[in-house]
Task: structure prediction
Amino acid sequence: MSVAATTPRFKANVHEALHDLRLQGALPHARNFIGRRADAAARLPEFDALRDSARAIKDHTLAHLDLYLEAYEKKVVEAGGHVHYARDSDEAVAVILGICKARDAKVVTKGKSMISEEIGLNAALEREGINAVETDLGEYVIQLRGEAPSHIIAPAIHVSRDDIEADFRRAHRDLAPDRDLSQPEQLLGEARAILRDRFLSADIGLTGANFLVAETGTSIIVTNEGNGDLTQILPKVHVVLASLEKITPTLNDVAQILRVLARSATGQDMSVYTTLSTGPRRPGDPDGPEEYHVVLLDNGRSATLGGPFAEMLRCIRCGACMNHCPVYHAVGGHAYGWVYPGPMGAVLTPLLIGVAEGGNLPNASTFCGRCEAVCPMRIPLPKLMRIWREREFARGLTSPFARAAIRLWAFFASRPTLYGLAVEPAMRLLARIGRRRGRFAWLPFAGGWTRGRDFPAPQGATFQSRWRAKSGATR
Amino acid sequence: MSARDEIFASIRRSLNVGPVDAPRRDAVVARLAQAPVGIIPRRGHGDAAERLATFKAEAERVQATVAEVATAADVPAEIARYLRENNLPATIRFGDDPRLADMPWAETALEVARGPSEGDDLNAVAAAFAGVAETGTLALVSGADNPTTLNFLPDNHFVVLFADDLVADLESVFARLREKYGPGALPRTVNFITGPSRSADIEQTLLLGAHGPRRLHVVVARGLS
Ligand code: SF4
Result:
């Protein structure tokens, strides 16, 4: 039942995104993250060592996931909580609907959860007549617009301030139509007041989790607004929805990963609220939920362990890879067509929804390698995208023309002498033709490339011939 | 097979392991028992004075304010001063924490309310379980002493931090939690708070007071009495 993907139409999505002037006006905001991350990393001499430490912790955890999961489950139950397992999206939705029905819930407030997007929870709740209220400001905005998030930590990064104002005027009809909403503070104030009422009247609060701690049976959320906290302490029931790979052995392990998480995401040293929740409220506690449930989603993750994509399970959803991705900067998150955009989405989407649906995305890369360079968990994203491409090729999903061209190139590339014999005269010819303008506006078989930019004319000699001449001269 | 059993079977199939595998089990039991400490940044370390200076600088970087007073008895006057100077109503709410209850509130003009918040309080004060120098972070624990609603519903959040409770890093807070609540156990909620609530969801503009407090004022008390 998970949300329908438009990923198979990736090329058309990209075309639309590139011609969407509003989107192109908003996208530069994503670049703000680059400088902030760099500053935060520079301020902490131990940053790179912490990345290695975080990676080692996750690798160790994944190699022992069954055992840490058992330990975690035991602790949750000891603290009075409930653990539910869901093999796929449908099962996760069914478990949550069951909890809602047992409580006769009308209103569910929600902290930001990408897993809830993955399983298509909001639509499922609405179908049952349950009002799902997103409370993260960005999520609230896109819920009003009926859109999906376009970024995993800044879901409304594609929406301009003017659009938010228009959305609020359309949605908040009880308020004075002539009220001033020209300043961002006024927009925030209005959302705060409206959501305050929802927090206080909700029957169930649902949050995601950044970590599930085996040592104590604790779920941890990391936020800046405080909405995740109001979501979980005010209603009678707190439901945590998380995927298996969020398991982390100990609180000290969490501390290692926390030090790279916020820095990589927003450039903060620590997010404002790091909240540890363990079970329901205790005897004598004057506030907090009376029931605590954890819904653990697999959705193909357990099958990914031990295979070529296992490293992707280290991902802590910081968003740094998309913040530094030239393709993401050009087209934004919606073009990717499903829940997870950017380089992490390009690797994860085919894993979660299949190569047939998601196989387009690993091609949406220039292989510049910036994502891997900034990934706090040192996930080799370009390598993983390359594996997808190889599979796409092996399965014959690549077009016959591209296959023939690659074969031809491979034939010459693996025969250096023949390669030189073929390429050198061609380069000399191209250099002669292109001498006057220094570039080509059009080349046969390269229309896709030259449509958007010129191709520089070669200088005449190839690298190989120059290398031969140079080493001959120095020898 | 139940979803649970199938997921465990799938994990073990992928990892190519059986359910009983003594060396793997030993590794997990050992890690959970020992909770090894990883790489600790030097930033939070130093003697008490250095830790306080780092805490202050880091908290102020994230738009919190920090005041120091000599003893617990000086806290109410400092909170009254802050409210007055910021033109805020002279009210305050707090829980059952005896360290707060024993303070001389009657010597100020503050109107005092007690217990958790229903959402209509402007000002609240809590006593911190600990402070973290490395990042200017406060650690607060749930319970009747300091109800969690007080940390999020009021507009202006005051936190009293006793200087003895200011430690270098998160790992030191976890050690204190293990000592107080026992190994592997925690109170219902532990809040690590670093600055006042904020959002950058509107065109990446930083705005304070998204859903939680707009202001966070930390009062560091050097002595208990
Ligand atoms: S792949 Fe790396 S950079 Fe991208 S979201 Fe995951 S952890 Fe962050």
User: Anything to note?
Assistant: Residues A 264, 315-321, 344, 375-377, 379, 381 surround iron/sulfur cluster (CB under 6 Å). Residues 416-434 of chain A form the longest helix (19 residues). Chain A is about 50% helix and 10% strand.
